[in-house]
Amino acid sequence: MSTAPSTTTDEAPPPVTPAPSPGRWSPLRPLILRLHFYAGVFVAPFLLVAAVTGFLYAGAFQAEKIVYSHEMTVPVGDAKLPISEQVAAARKAYSEGAVSAVRPSPEDDATTRVMLSGVKGVDATHTLAVFVDPYTGKVRGALEQYGSTGALPLRTWIDEFHRDLQLGENGRLYSELAASWLWVIAGGGLVLWFSRRRALRKVRGTSGRRRTLGLHGSVGVWAAAGFIFLSATGLTWSTYAGANIDELRTSLGQSTPSVSSASGGDHSGHGASSSAGDAEHGVGLDKVLAAARAEGLGDPVEIVPPADESSAYVVKQVQRSWPEKQDAVAIDPTTGEVTDVLRFADYPLLAKLTRWGIDLHTGVLFGLVNQIALMLLALSLVLLIVWGYRMWWQRGRGSSFGRPIPRGAWQQVPPQILLPCVVAIAVLGYFVPLLGIPLAGFIVADVVLGEIAHRRGGRKDTVEAGSK
What we know:
Elements (H helix, E strand, L loop, with lengths): L27 H40 L1 H4 L10 H11 L4 E6 L8 E6 L9 E6 L6 E7 L7 H12 L7 H24 L12 H28 L4 H12 L33 H10 L6 E4 L8 E5 L10 E4 L6 E5 L6 H14 L4 H29 L19 H17 L1 H35 L1
Helix pairs in contact: 1-4, 1-5, 1-10, 5-6, 6-9, 6-10, 11-12
C-alpha cells in the first residue's frame, strides 16, 4: 500500500530570506572602518599613556589619605581655636612667603591648611600648605600643594604626568591629542559594531580574530559613553580646543562668573593694612569667617586675604563633591560687611555643566564610587587598545605587521553624503586643531601611499607585458 508524499514543514525547503538592501548610510561604513583603523593604530599609544596615568590618578585620592594621614588628620578635641590663632601658629613656624589662602578645618578630625605663596624652593604655581591642629595650634607639617582640589605631592605628580608627561606646556599636546581623538574612535567603534550582523557580534564559541573582535566590540560598546564623556570634559581645559570652548561660552554669556573682590574704596590708614605676608587685614579673619557663615557658607571654605589695600576678603566654598558647594562672598576688610554675593545656583547652565563635568572627570563629584568608575574606564581602554593591536596582528596572519584596511572607501560614498561630512569635519577640525591636523596628515599619507602603490602596480604590469 502506497502512501502519499509527506508535506510536513520539517521536509519543506527553508524559505529564502532576501538580503537586506543597503541603507542610505551604508557606504560610510568602510570609510569609518578605515578612520577607526588609522586612529587606533597611531593615536592608541597616546591613549594608552592617558589611560594608565588616569587609572593611577583616580586611585591617588585614597592613597593620599594614607600617605599624608599625619598631616591631614588629628585626634578630635574639645573646641577649635579661633582661625586667627591657627594662622598665627603657622606663621610662627613658617615665616617665609605670604599667606595666599586659609582653609579652616572642614571636619572634626581634619587639620586647617594655611597656604603660603612665594616660598623659596616651592614651584611658583604651587603653594606651601602648612597643616595646623585646630584644637591645639600645633603645626603637624608642611607639604607642597597644587590646584583647587588641594592636591599634595603624590597626587600632584601623577596629575602633571597625566596632563603633560612632566614636560610643561609642550607636553600638554599629548593629552589634548588623546582627548581630541578618543570620542572619534569610540563613536566610530559604536557605528561599526551596530552595523554588523547580530550573529557576528558573538564572543562565546568563537576563536582567533573573531573572538578578539567580539571582546573588543563588546567592551567598547559598554564603555563608549564614558569615553565620549572623558573626551569632551578633557577638552574643556586643553590648550587649543579649551581656548576655543572658553571663547564660545563667553560669546554665549555662559562663562563662569566670579565674585567681585573690590571693597569699594581705598582703606589705607583706616585699619585695613597689615604686615607683609600676613592674613590679618582690618577686622581680621575671625570676623570675616563669621560674616561668611552668616551668609550661609558652610564648610569646607577657603578664605583669600585682600590682594591690596583696595580689595576685599573673598570667602568661597570649595566642596566639589555632590551636592556642589560653590557659593562665594566678598567682605570689606574695614567694616566686615558683605559687599558681594555669588551663588552657585545663579551660575549659567553651561558653567554649571562644566563644573560638574570637570569634577566628574577628576573623580571628586561622587567620591570613591566616581574614582572606581574612572579606574574601570581606564582599564577598559587599556584592554581595548591591546585587543585592537592584536586584531591588527591577526589580520596579517602572524606577519610582523597586520594588513591595513583597503583604500578607496571614500570613493564609494555618494557626493550628497560625502560633501556635508567633509564640511562638518573641516569646521570641527578648526575648533579642535589636534583632531583636524592629524586627520589631514592621515589623508595626505593615505593618498601618497596609494599613489606609490598605484605606480608600482603600473610598472609591474609594464614589465610583465614586456616579458611576454
